[in-house]
Task: inverse folding
């Protein structure tokens, strides 16, 4: 069973993922959001690598590499390119103001602890004990998804949800099969690529990337 | 008198060493605070390509101010004179009881989280009253702004340290530091990480650094701390400056020892205390350098966005406490 320094590393990585989710709600600057996502991706990869090293699982080690490349480097890099290409939308435009959404995030974290407490009671061990952190990341990601209007910040919400699910998967099932992880990683990567094409086209056609203004049809 | 002192020494052995350590802590914070400010100024200047004043500039300024006459504004009451004294005294008491160079300072049992945070609060309220006392527009404006920020940052400070108290099962600061020394694994726990981020934001707000306040300008629209102390001169100004520098030294020392307790002296002799002093200086200097480097690349936020910044710190602290309470 995992213990000692390895457990400390896993705890720290899980903490970084949740702290990143709250930072994503807190910061309005889209460029810093991309670096928060990169940090989360690196923390997830480190977590998977620690689990792979302690369990001697080669497949999980490969998954860690895939996570590092997609979530830690490629996706944040692509997002940063979208942000850089559009100087007009450096800041997010939240529907709910930042202090209120932070209070909501605190509520979501407490909720996830209450809900996940029932789950972790089924099999108490040091890893499942951290599962509420993953659930909280998923919930905060959904919150970002529904309260932010810019195309990039919605993608940030989606990626937060994805990172939270990945964290839950690593903690509860000690990793997913390589094929599944490859599938989801490529799926998310594809979504980000589509977003980049979409954002570029939207900017060329309408001059903005505000999804709220895409309500009606034009000729 | 000597008989009472001898009785005290006999009643609790080692009390003199502990009192000595406390006196050393106060001296370290009083001298180290201005030096830390000087270091931050030097790092900023170097990062901006300037030579900058020497690190000891703060101490030299203090010596200059101490030789000058304390001129008070017309129609001021006793509050103006008392405020700097209360500020320095509260900082000194805080420095004496907080575990800075040793985990066993004098009256260690009284060094509760709440006591230390409220000692800091007492100093800032005294300074705000002093700012209001002269009845000038700037003083009132500065005091009002300082209290607005303080009203959000003090609870965040309290809750962030509480996250560590939950982990250590004690709200006594020396106990928290001793417990984190005994459990190195705690240093990497999620609640500590969240509390550290929250505490850094609060310390930046409490000590009036960028992005909350810019200590090197006197611009009417933005100044907070400088507006409060405009009416002070001479020895009064020296006391206020020492008090503010002690506050910075105390907060940085607290962050350093709560999160990175390595090197702090335990129940050992003078050598352990000396090692603790060196370790404290090194850790506080490292944190101050990091803050100064971040300051160089950050712009001051608008006053109306400061509550947003602090709300983030507060929420991180609340999440840290929740994590600590539930995930045990």
Result:
């Amino acid at each position: 069973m995992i213990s000692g320094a390895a457990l400390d590393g896993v705890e720290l990585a899980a903490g970084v993922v949740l702290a990143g989710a709250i930072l994503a709600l807190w910061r309005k600057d889209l460029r810093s959001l991309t670096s928060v996502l990169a940090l989360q991706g690196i923390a997830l990869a480190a977590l998977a690598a620690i689990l792979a090293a302690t369990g001697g699982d080669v497949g999980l080690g490969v998954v860690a590499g895939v996570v590092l490349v997609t979530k830690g480097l490629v996706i944040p890099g692509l997002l940063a390119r979208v942000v850089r290409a559009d100087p007009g939308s450096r800041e997010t435009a939240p529907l709910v103001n930042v202090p209120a959404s932070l209070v909501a995030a605190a509520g979501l974290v407490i909720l996830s602890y209450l809900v996940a407490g029932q789950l972790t009671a089924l099999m108490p061990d040091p890893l499942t004990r951290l599962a509420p952190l993953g659930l909280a990341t998923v919930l905060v990601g959904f919150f970002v998804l529904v309260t932010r209007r810019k195309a990039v910040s919605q993608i940030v919400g989606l990626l937060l949800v994805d990172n939270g699910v990945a964290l839950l998967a690593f903690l509860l099932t000690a990793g997913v099969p390589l094929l599944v992880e490859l599938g989801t990683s490529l799926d998310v990567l594809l979504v980000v690529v589509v977003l980049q094409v979409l954002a570029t086209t939207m900017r060329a056609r309408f001059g903005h990337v505000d999804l709220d203004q895409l309500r009606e049809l034009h000729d | 008198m000597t008989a009472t002192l001898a009785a005290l020494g006999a009643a609790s052995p080692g009390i003199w060493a502990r009192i000595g350590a406390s006196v050393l802590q106060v001296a370290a914070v009083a001298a180290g605070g201005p030096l830390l400010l000087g270091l931050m100024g030097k790092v900023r200047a170097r990062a901006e390509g300037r030579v900058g004043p020497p690190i000891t500039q703060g101490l030299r300024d203090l010596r200059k101010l101490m030789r000058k006459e304390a001129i008070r504004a017309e129609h001021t009451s006793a509050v103006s004179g008392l405020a700097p004294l209360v500020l320095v005294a509260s900082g000194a008491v805080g420095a004496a009881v907080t575990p800075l160079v040793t985990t066993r300072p004098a009256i260690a049992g009284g060094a509760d989280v709440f006591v230390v945070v409220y000692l800091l609060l007492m100093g800032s309220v005294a300074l705000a009253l002093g700012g209001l006392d002269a009845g000038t527009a700037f003083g009132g404006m500065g005091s009002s702004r300082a209290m607005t920020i303080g009203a959000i940052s003090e609870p965040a400070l309290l809750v962030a340290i509480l996250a560590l108290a939950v982990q250590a099962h004690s709200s006594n600061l020396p106990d928290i530091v001793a417990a984190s020394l005994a459990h190195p694994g705690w240093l990497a726990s999620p609640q500590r990480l969240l509390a550290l981020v929250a505490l850094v934001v609060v310390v930046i707000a409490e000590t009036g650094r960028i992005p909350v306040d810019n200590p090197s300008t006197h611009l009417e629209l933005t100044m907070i701390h400088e507006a409060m102390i405009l009416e002070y001169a001479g020895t009064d100004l020296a006391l206020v400056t020492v008090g503010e520098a002690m506050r910075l030294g105390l907060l940085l020392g607290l962050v350093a020892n709560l999160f990175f307790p390595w090197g702090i002296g335990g129940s050992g002799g003078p050598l352990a205390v000396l090692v603790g002093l060196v370790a404290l200086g090194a850790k506080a200097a490292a944190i101050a350098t990091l803050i100064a480097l971040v300051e160089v690349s950050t712009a001051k936020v608008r006053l109306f966005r400061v509550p947003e910044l602090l709300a983030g710190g507060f929420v991180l602290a609340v999440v840290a406490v929740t994590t600590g309470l539930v995930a045990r």
About this structure: The helical segments of chain A are 4-26, 30-55, 58-85, 98-120, 131-147, 151-173, 178-206.
